[in-house]
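Researcher: Quick test of sequence recovery. Tokens follow.
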């Protein structure tokens, strides 16, 4: 086809009743070769596979990029279910309750290679999280993991969800990336907001230990603080949404329709605590503490009051409180070395005793480096602690 014929064809295609977008785009890009004064880059479809393989090395790194995307989208939780994945060809289902994507956000973000608005917006809109994955790798990670992808995403503000299906087999070399199309449709919402990725025909098999490895890779993002019921209600009532409620990842295997939990904060963190302390002071000021340690065979309940020698004497100011504390001993006898480093890191960044009032965090108690009860001897010696006026509020 010469230039004139090509232009004629473009006009004809553009005016036809059932507009064939792919054909129109292909013809237009062909037209570029007749531009004698300019040349342009075009992109071969094989680039997707190349980038997938070169940017994302290990399969575990690939999955952790997707968990980072959920965190970046202000999700409170992400569930990963590995379905029939003992052999290659299984399915990985990743569902988060984050902000989700609109059709436009999907086109301008996920479907635009090399774009990431996270460089311009390094913190997330809702909980002001420092965004974890902003290298534009997530979309290649899904290609690295499985042969087909289904994305279902919905936003709070919309009453429908979008569903996109991508068959990576279509992205082979010797054709223009621009001309490969992927079906998008509206479907009914599955949840208020969030994104589900279904990665079909997994390229690898997933054992229990490789799934656990993912958890360790992302454990830096996980803030396993249970939030109180009152707090949820208060947030609703006052419409406060900026306090980060934390982020949890749960990794599950599904075999023969049976769900087998592999890794969550219980199995990867709390189960390694040598003891758990749970306590409360009731409305009359009477306190109780339970201490449970399977390891040391302790299961005790102790009364607690204002006077150490006479615990029946109730607290006069301290009322209606409760707490739960996990006690770790950082030694390989108690925590396997693989987990040990992660737990120490997690405790260093997110540990400490935090204070909640009516379900809301009271700052700066328990912030990074804020050992307000002076429990950490090594920190006390360095005396870098911010001063609190009412450290003695515990009424003891
Ligand atoms: N779980 C998700 N929830 C909402 N948006 C997502 C999610 N995963 C990916 N996205 C969107 O797709 C874009 C591309 O993701 P990715 O390739 O990982 O690049 P990056 O995270 O560096 O922006 C993100 O910027 C985001 O807009
Ligand atoms: Mg990402």
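Model:
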């Amino acid at each position: 086809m010469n230039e004139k014929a090509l232009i004629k064809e473009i006009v004809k295609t553009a005016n036809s009743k059932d507009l064939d977008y792919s054909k129109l785009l292909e013809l237009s890009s062909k037209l570029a070769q007749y531009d004698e004064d300019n040349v342009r880059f075009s992109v071969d479809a094989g680039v997707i596979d190349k980038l997938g393989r070169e940017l994302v090395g290990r399969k575990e790194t690939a999955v952790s990029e997707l968990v980072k995307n959920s965190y970046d989208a202000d999700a409170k939780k992400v569930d990963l279910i590995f379905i029939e994945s003992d052999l290659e060809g299984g399915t990985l289902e990743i569902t988060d309750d984050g902000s989700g994507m609109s059709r436009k956000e999907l086109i301008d973000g996920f479907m635009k290679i090399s774009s990431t608005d996270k460089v311009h917006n390094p913190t997330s809109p809702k909980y002001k999280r420092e965004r974890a994955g902003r290298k534009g790798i997530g979309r290649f990670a899904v290609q690295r993991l499985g042969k087909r992808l289904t994305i279902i995403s919905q936003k709070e503000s919309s009453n429908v969800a979008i569903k996109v299906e991508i068959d990576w087999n279509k992205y082979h070399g010797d054709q223009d990336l621009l001309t490969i199309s992927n079906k998008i449709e509206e479907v009914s919402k599955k949840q208020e907001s969030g994104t589900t990725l279904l990665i079909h025909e997994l390229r690898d098999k997933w054992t229990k230990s490789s799934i656990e490895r993912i958890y360790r890779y992302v454990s830096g993002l996980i803030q396993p603080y249970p939030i109180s019921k009152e707090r949820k209600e208060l947030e609703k009532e006052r419409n406060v949404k900026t306090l980060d409620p934390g982020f949890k990842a749960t990794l599950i295997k599904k075999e023969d329709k049976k769900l087998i939990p592999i890794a969550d904060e219980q199995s990867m963190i709390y189960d390694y605590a040598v003891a758990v302390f749970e306590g409360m002071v009731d409305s009359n000021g009477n306190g109780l503490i339970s201490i449970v340690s399977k390891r040391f065979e302790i299961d005790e309940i102790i009364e607690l009051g204002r006077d150490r020698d006479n615990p029946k004497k109730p607290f006069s100011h301290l009322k209606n409180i409760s707490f739960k504390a996990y006690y770790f001993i950082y030694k390989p006898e108690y925590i396997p070395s693989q987990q040990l480093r992660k737990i120490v890191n997690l405790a260093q960044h997110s540990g400490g005793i935090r204070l909640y009032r009516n379900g809301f965090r009271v700052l700066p108690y328990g912030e990074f480096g804020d050992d307000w009860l002076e429990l950490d001897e090594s920190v006390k010696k360095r005396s870098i602690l911010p001063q609190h006026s009412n450290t003695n509020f515990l009424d003891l």
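The pocket of magnesium ion (ligand 2) is lined by residues 65, 68-69, 133, 137-138 (CB under 6 Å).
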